[in-house]
Amino acid sequence: MSRPQVIPALISIRGIAAWWVVLYHFRQYLPARSPEWLLALTAHGYLAVDLFFILSGFVLALNYAESFRGGLAGATSFYRLRFARIYPLHFVMLMLFLLNPLAIALFSTNGDTSAYGWGYFVLSLFLVQNWGFSSELAWNDPAWSISTEVFAYLLFPFAAMLVGRVIVTVRAALLVMVALLIVLAIGAQAAGGSLGDDIPGFGLTRCCLQFLIGMLVWRLRDRIGFTTPRVSRAAILLAASLILAYALVPIGDALVMPAAFALLVFGLADPLARPGIWLNVSWLEKLGLISYSTYLSHVFIKIWVKFALVRPGIPEWVPLLVYLLVVALASIVLYRMVEVPGRRWLRSPAVSAASRSAGRSTNERLVS
Prior knowledge:
15 helices, mainly alpha, about 70% helix
């Protein structure tokens, strides 16, 4: 496999998805006169997480899959690299969340801190809170998906070796992908009918299946290539058609959206695809680069904005505006002061080991 390449469109789409989640978690505080299309769009922001899972599987396969085709020699280095990528910011945000039960205990009239259980805190500290050990979401809610991705990271070297040795043809990749999509739809139906239902029980399965789908998208890209832009354009057009069908027809999200996201990632992976080129703008790419900070910080900010500004006498647009501005500012600050320095500090002894074992360089901007 050739050296990993930067695909700005995929970085940009990650930033857009992160802000979709930001609006989703603030949807109940949108101004009453908000357009219907905006309310509908924000109500489905939970689906951005499914795009994250597929994108993560694709990007990691793009960067590392060939390293494990011959065996698992580089697995330890891979795990260290992923830990350095996700843990520093997660730890800092979890520590910031300690302010919430403290504030409730000191200033609330009832002093009820039951929503901040210490058992869940310990699970979150080790990023295993959504591995079936709890029946709830607590503390920094969005971190549930980071917990499930950690599980997917543990499986990745084995999955990469399997894909590299067994799923080597386009036909095999398509058949396995269709099978995974069917299993995902059945699982969503059993969980309550939607991808967003029963996150504590279904979230881990939801992540792992779509992570594997993302890896298969990479395999298809690796085998088909982009000798003509018609392939990527057709994939993006079909993705758009599925998304439009979901918006207009009462159909389960699991039946269409994972397939749509897989097609979208495949199409945008073509650096010459016109829809992808439209996303190749610097400010969108910057949104993507800081999207992890956006994702992990926004619920903490929401809680405090709600506490301070959602009350009679304050115009409805004020909390929304403050929320969006503070999330944007916090994303930049956390990315520059926590995410990047923490990543570099933890990776410094691991990068050389990974290079020796994998025989290749990694692209820090692309790895999700």
